[in-house]
Amino acid sequence: MPNFVGIEVAVEVLNAAQRVMVVGCPGGGKSTLSQALSAHFGLRYISMDKEFFWLPGWVARPRAEQRALITEAVAGERWIMDGSNPTSFDLRVPRSDLVIWARMRRLLSLWGVLTRVAKTYGRTRPDMASGCPEQLPDRAFLRYIWNFESVHGPVFVRNIDLHGPDVPVVVLNSRAEMRCMLDLAGVRA
């Protein structure tokens, strides 16, 4: 079983952390949280979508190239990495001082994606690769969000336990819990 900790313990770990991994469903607030923590703690912000997964025009980068880039990035000394790809947990979890799991309800994640689209439609977000403008979510993406927890939740637990059973993992189940963690850490978001 992963080393689940409460928010207060997570903040203590976060205050000394050099490498933080943030995972969760699209629309759950991973990027916003990661960017706020990055700015406050001076950790390099790494968006997996921007730096590893996507090339201009929404072309997926080849998997071998993705893995090589992730391997290089996790070798760095100070970072916060925003992205849920469980196939790279073997690289990321052992190097992490803390895993933050934004485990939002599916309706909240769907709302987050719809809000994001309304704000940035047709433009490329700062956490997305150049040439990948925000678009309307298709049925497959909405289904991915709807089923995210049932499909990925058990995989996250298994991979965290396998690759970092002693790495502290904080689960944030609501925006209120995210704000609480930011407040306790003294982060102005």
TrEMBL record:
Signal peptide: none
Lineage of origin: Bacteria, Pseudomonadati, Pseudomonadota, Alphaproteobacteria, Hyphomicrobiales
Protein name: AAA family ATPase
Gene3D superfamilies, sorted: P-loop containing nucleotide triphosphate hydrolases
Organism: Rhizobium terricola
